[in-house]
Amino acid sequence: DDEATIIDGKKIAADIRLEIKAEVDELKTKYGGKVPGLAVVIVGERKDSQTYVRMKRKACDEVGIHSFHSELPETISEEELIDVVKKYNENPDCHGILVQLPLPKHIDEEKVLGVISLEKDVDGFHPLNIGMLAMKGHEPLFMPCTPKGSIVLLERSGVELKGKNAVVVGRSNIVGMPASMMLNKKDCTVTVVHSRTKNPKEICRQADILIAAAGSAKMIKGDWIKKGAAVIDVGTNSVEDKSKKSGYALVGDVDFDEAKKRASFITPVPGGVGPMTIAMLLQNCLDGGKRAIEGTK
Ligand code: NDP
């Protein structure tokens, strides 16, 4: 009776995808068949990367976003990869460029990401987009998809952010750090917890909003949660589970069963933040495509 509302990320992501499809259709009608275009670049044969790329392309198809595909060999040189990115920079039908990470060891990821044109940086990882996210009075052209998805889940659940104490567990470039800056932009008072933080439990207990992105299975226990907090669990950890056919199960960074007795809102794993990542990628592609096709900035 007193349990948290479970935030249905699958449902919210599906709603967003329908909204995006409607906007793509509208753009297409208005501008003689023009649609947003996304280039997906993958290097090497990693099975997990191939799965992610397949999911992203399928999601594009479903909403009517055109996808370009470059499947490059593991042995490609940094220079050749940069040339591929530059070609997409110049292609007027391509409005977003996604280089699937990780790249092979002989290639400098930051160098490659830094070549992506700012207007096409749909992953939001370009240092200038991150810089604008950090700066007062500036807005980035794109924000990283997973942390953005976390914020959208809060907003669509009706959670007030302004003036609230927010704690982010984790400070990675792709999740924790951008999440903390986005909450700051939303007028939260933000504290970041990382692996060297002295009293993480005491800090988390102050959080009205808690975003967990540490990659450590169930590290956040029920008594780390403030009564009534909104909890977004980004963690996706695979743990052994003999009851499952596959032999493993996915769990978050939060002990869900304990935390839901104290939180007011909580995301499950899977089915919380996960589905939002691709929805936000589609949103970024739409935004980039719209700016280019409508000729606005
Ligand atoms: P990283 O490993 O890059 O970063 C983890 C961060 O958490 C680091 O800042 C680290 O601190 C901190 N940390 C690790 N352990 C602890 C601990 N015990 N206490 C406090 N802080 C800790 O991971 P990512 O940011 O890439 O991913 C985080 C989680 O989110 C993972 O489970 C990942 O699978 C998941 N994820 C899910 C996505 C999705 O749903 N679509 C997308 C991306 C990620 P320090 O900086 O000091 O090392």
TrEMBL record:
UniProt pathway annotation: One-carbon metabolism; tetrahydrofolate interconversion
Keyword Hydrolase listed: yes
Keyword Cell cycle: no
SUPFAM superfamilies per record: Aminoacid dehydrogenase-like, N-terminal domain, NAD(P)-binding Rossmann-fold domains
InterPro entries: Aminoacid_DH-like_N_sf (IPR046346), NAD(P)-bd_dom_sf (IPR036291), THF_DH/CycHdrlase (IPR000672), THF_DH/CycHdrlase_cat_dom (IPR020630), THF_DH/CycHdrlase_CS (IPR020867), THF_DH/CycHdrlase_NAD-bd_dom (IPR020631)
Residue ranges constituting the Tetrahydrofolate dehydrogenase/cyclohydrolase NAD(P)-binding domain according to the UniProt record: 144-289
GO cellular component: cytosol
Catalysed transformations (reactions): (6R)-5,10-methenyltetrahydrofolate + H2O = (6R)-10-formyltetrahydrofolate + H(+); (6R)-5,10-methylene-5,6,7,8-tetrahydrofolate + NADP(+) = (6R)-5,10-methenyltetrahydrofolate + NADPH
Gene Ontology MF, one: methenyltetrahydrofolate cyclohydrolase activity
GO process annotations (BP): tetrahydrofolate interconversion
Record's keyword terms, sorted: Hydrolase, Multifunctional enzyme, NADP, One-carbon metabolism, Oxidoreductase
Domain Tetrahydrofolate dehydrogenase/cyclohydrolase catalytic: 7-123
Similarity annotation: Belongs to the tetrahydrofolate dehydrogenase/cyclohydrolase family.
Cited HAMAP family: THF_DHG_CYH (MF_01576)
Function per UniProt: Catalyzes the oxidation of 5,10-methylenetetrahydrofolate to 5,10-methenyltetrahydrofolate and then the hydrolysis of 5,10-methenyltetrahydrofolate to 10-formyltetrahydrofolate.
Subunit description: Homodimer.
Entry protein name: Uncharacterized protein
Naturally occurring in which organism (per UniProt): Bathycoccus prasinos
